[in-house]
Amino acid sequence: WVWALVHGDLGTSIFTNLPVTRLIEQRIEPTLSLTLLTLVLAVLVAVPLGIVAAARAGTWIDRAVMAFSVVGFSVPVFVIAYVLIMVFSIDLDWLPVQGYRSFHEGIWEWLRHLILPSVALGTVYIALIARITRASMLDVLAQDYIRTAQAKGLDSGSVLVGHALKNAAVPIMTIIGIGIAL
């Protein structure tokens, strides 16, 4: 058995009577597609949310982002998925409830079938990354070199992205890496 395993023979499934390698090949594209889209969505949404929350600390924007983070952690993924299905599939009839289309069948069809599960799965990561980004940015924004950059007259966008985000990136990248591993 070990000799066959070393040579790539994973055996035959007792349920389908097909080679296990073929079963893995059938499921690898949807799995990787969902994983990558979820991760990209989470990073593209969470990092700007965390930056805006830190830049507007104490305002209603900050409170709204932190409230979203608490809800994102508190509500189970399957509940979020049910709500998304009710709204976007049943009520609005915009997105399919189930199924998968290959990337080779067209980008729009591929995206239509992955948007709902990616948003549902990504909500937890968005909440986590947004909270870590906000906390890290608040820590960096309190540093002397940030005040110096602001005193020099740099606009707030270049201070946030050019100075603060670069130095706050280590914890953010660590959490993103942990999300990849999970």
Features:
single chain, mainly alpha, 7 helices
Give the helix/strand layout.
Elements: H1 2-6, H2 20-55, H3 60-74, H4 77-91, H5 107-141, H6 144-151, H7 156-181
Helix pairs in contact: 2-3, 2-5, 2-7, 3-5, 4-5, 5-7
Report the β-strand fraction as a percent range.
under 5%
Task: Count every beta strand, where a strand is a DSSP E run of 2 or more residues.
Answer: 0
What is the string of SSEs from the N terminus onward?
Answer: HHHHHHH
Alpha-beta classification: mainly alpha
What is the rounded Rg? 21 Å
Distance between the termini: 29 Å
Approximately how much helix is present in the residues? over 70%
For the largest beta-sheet, the strand count, sense and barrel status come to: none
General form: elongated
Q: Helical segment tally?
A: 7
Low-confidence region ranges: none
Overall pLDDT, averaged? 88
